UniProtKB/TrEMBL annotation:
The keyword Glycoprotein does not apply. It comes from the Bacteria. It comes from Candidatus Aquitaenariimonas noxiae. The gene is fabD. One of its GO terms (cellular component) is cytosol. The active site is at 93, 198. Its EC number is 2.3.1.39. This is Malonyl CoA-acyl carrier protein transacylase. SUPFAM superfamilies: FabD/lysophospholipase-like, Probable ACP-binding domain of malonyl-CoA ACP transacylase. It catalyses: holo-[ACP] + malonyl-CoA = malonyl-[ACP] + CoA. It is an enzyme of class 2 (transferase). One of its GO terms (molecular function) is [acyl-carrier-protein] S-malonyltransferase activity.
Length: 307
């Protein structure tokens, strides 16, 4: 039997119109969006469906929006009669919280409220410690780490071969770009992110989040989860709490996490939620792995039953 993993996207995957076709086609998806408005206390549905993009892309809105859309898509998939039995679940950054809900480790309501708090804390930390993120292309990790040391920046994401994402103050990131170009003629891409996520500049957010996360009823996941901070399977709620806080200030190990799932025999990854960002990363990690997307109704009709 083919082994399947659920994967969930991170911030940046949002787009205007996200979830609208699911809402109009699947009662379970409609229910998830309608509940979200009550849980969050504002009209996230309208923001997802109509935008504007600038408002939707704010950290405080995009993180809850991605969780809502992804869980709506998952519930529609589960209700569709397609026979998927996932071997494991994992998500990139925000996506890890979606995996937490998908695996049954946290309820939808608690997961959504927690991500709302996380997003708020991250936005506050970004104002307190302004920062940027940049993807350095085609420079090996050791050399990027040397650049970071010189520029006083930090490696934030190891997403796929040929790309190292770095976080730091605006001045530090400008220096990283200059050093990468000067030393290795390397291309760098500044990310459309409002802060230096997954770095020590997020410590104020991590301190607040650690207090809030203790109030959440986190259970042992019914679907095994691989975590960003360690690239390991974890099931102990205490370790899960620690990992969720740690990933705010430390590098995320996405490439390593996907390789672990593949080592365990997973060959098909179902990207559930907005966009196809993870599919692009997966092609670079291992082009032999199959990735199927579930974002819109059209994607849903194209998804094949593989387990």
């Amino acid at each position: 039997m083919v082994k399947v993993a659920y994967i969930f996207p991170g911030q940046g995957a949002q787009y205007v119109g996200m979830g609208k076709t699911l809402y109009n086609s699947f009662p379970k998806a409609k229910e998830i969006f309608d509940q979200a408005n009550d849980i969050l206390g504002y009209d996230i549905k309208k923001l997802c469906f109509e935008g504007p993009l600038g408002e939707l892309s704010k950290t405080v809105n995009s993180q809850p929006a991605i969780l809502v859309h992804s869980i709506a898509a998952l519930r529609a998939l589960e209700d569709s009669g397609k026979d998927f039995t996932p071997f494991c679940a994992l998500g990139l950054s925000v996506g890890e919280y979606i995996a937490l809900v998908a695996s049954g480790a946290a309820s939808y309501k608690e997961g959504l409220k927690l991500i709302q708090q996380r997003a708020r804390f991250m936005e506050e930390a970004s104002k307190q410690n302004p920062g940027k993120m940049v993807a350095v292309m085609n420079v090996e990790l050791g050399k990027v780490e040397e650049i970071c040391k010189e520029a006083e920046a930090e490696v934030a994401n190891l997403n796929c071969p040929g790309q190292v994402v770095v976080s730091g103050s605006p001045a530090a990131i400008n220096k990283v770009v200059a050093l990468a170009q000067g030393k290795y003629t390397a291309k760098s891409v500044i990310l459309n992110i409002s802060g230096a996520f997954h770095s020590s500049l997020m410590l104020p957010a991590a301190e607040k989040l650690s207090k809030e996360i203790e109030k959440v009823n986190i259970k042992k996941p019914a679907i095994p989860m691989i975590f960003n901070a360690t690239a390991k399977f974890e099931s102990d709620p205490a370790i899960i709490r620690k990992n969720l806080v740690t990933q705010l200030t430390k590098r995320t190990l996405w490439e390593e996490s996907i390789k672990l799932a593949a080592q365990k025999g997973v060959t098909t990854f179902l990207e559930i939620g907005p966009g196809k960002v993870l599919k692009g990363l997966m092609r670079r990690i291992n082009p032999k792995l199959t990735v199927q997307n579930f974002d819109t109704v059209e994607d849903f009709s194209a998804v094949k039953t593989t387990a």
